[in-house]
Amino acid sequence: MSSKIISRCFFFLILLSISLGGYGQSKTPTVSIDVNLLQTEGRLPPIWEYFGYDEANYTYMKDGKKLLTEIAALSPVRVNVRAHNMLTSGDAIPGLKWSSTNAYTEDSNGKPVYNWKIIDSIFDTYIQRGMKPIAEIGFMPEALSVNPGSVSEETQLDKTKPKHYSGWPYPPKSYEKWAELVFQWVKHSVQRYGKTEVESWYWEVWNEPDLTFYWKGNTDEYIKLYDYTADAVKRALPTAKIGGPETTSPDGKSGGELLQKFLTHIVSGKNYVTGKPGTPLDFITFHAKGAPKLIDGVVWMNMGNQLRSIDKGFEIVSSIPSLKKLPIVIGESDPEGCAACPGDLHPEYAYRNSTMYASYTAAVMTRTYDLATKRGVNLSGAVTWAFEFEDQPYFRGFRDLATNGIDKPVLNVFRMFGMMQGNRVTTTSTSKQNYITIRDSSVRGQEPDVNALATKSTNATAILVWNYHDKNDTDVPSTPVSILVKGLPLRNVLLTQYIIDQTHSNAYTVWKKMGSPKTPTLEEYKILEAAGQLKEAYSPKYITPVNGETKIDFDLERQGVTLLKITW
């Protein structure tokens, strides 16, 4: 072969090598993100510090206590916890979507008998860990229900469980007796925990009263219930915070109509107790859910559905000038609506064990902040309705944060949020996705949502970055990410990078590699327990900013999340 031919072949190989070097490892273009520490956007309220669940009796059980301890340790911020069935009659034996405290019964003469033992054990568990109860005032004790003995629809989710008879979703037969129950509960709480502590709690009335599943009365009867409840709470503790109405998604017909009617009543309606216009309201609550579907065997999320619900709720609140600045707590803010529906029976929920739940959470929390800013409302919290399910099979696919004491990837996102202190700072990304595009169309095209949320405190900055797409598919190339941080001090800084992906902070993939053991050995359990903790991508390292700037490059897997923490 001539030297000229050899040279041409060599030149061709060089061109091929350059081509493969540019696209062989990753076909996705680099996403550039600028973080400007000198441009603050105000305080970032810790809306992520809110959690909730149906099964209140899990609170003081073994795995419940373990998980609550971990949640309380997420950050210096006090965590708020909401649970259903705080006044429901029953034997305190929990089931899926079921719990009870038997706080109220009546003697043979119809006189009230109060029993705070189980409620106290629940709230004691919170208080001992420095947490705040979101005291959900509901559901109806059997002795007060207009339809006692009715079968609970909740038990239909599990045919093996005994039916519960309590009449819990009905209005009271006596609003005066109901009000006295509420008065006594608040009064007891003040006596047990102190006025200052109880003043810091949220007290809220019922859950999803626009659904016949949870409320068998009409809208006017719920509003009457709210008026009597608010009056009782304020009589027991005038400085207590009372709120509602905890409706379903405001962009739905039932949720939106009840929320609007409720808020109108609060401002100018005739109070059922006082007969005068207006009712106390210290914070506003509603729910927002996504809507995943199984398409050709693959889970497709719908973040846009959740964001449209949030935005509509903010729009309704902002339309009433006298209420616009009240704190808003999104009482349930989740990818879908049934935490107790397991993945083995509902394959559209197969995202829950994976990193997709983590990336979804990182993205949707940030977009919730953005929508609140756009509408000019006072967003205080967004409750993640996920906890744990005691003594269920490992990784069965419930919407939970841990399984049998083993943390899921999603819990590590909250550990990341816990390190984000101080003010939000401006970030810009070359990704085409933003809160408007995702609200309107979700993330369905070729490009994923690769974006960031960043904060700055006195001597640190934290930058949360995610690579999200609605399609639950990790078998795609990682995305190269280039972060330019501006406004750093003119000295060495320490960089720590935490990561959630297929090989970090992920007990689920480790469990699968073990062969998905139904009952892990003690040694396997310890390995899984360690794998569920938040991991560093590499050892922390010192870097030297140039003119107050530094560039950080890395690849981020699809559905991966990373946190860059820089301290000085």
TrEMBL record:
It comes from the Bacteria. Residues 100-533 form the Glycosyl hydrolases family 39 N-terminal catalytic domain. Keywords: Glycosidase, Hydrolase. GO terms for biological process: carbohydrate metabolic process. Pfam families: Glyco_hydro_39. GO terms for molecular function: hydrolase activity, hydrolyzing O-glycosyl compounds. Belongs to the glycosyl hydrolase 39 family. This is Xylan 1,4-beta-xylosidase.
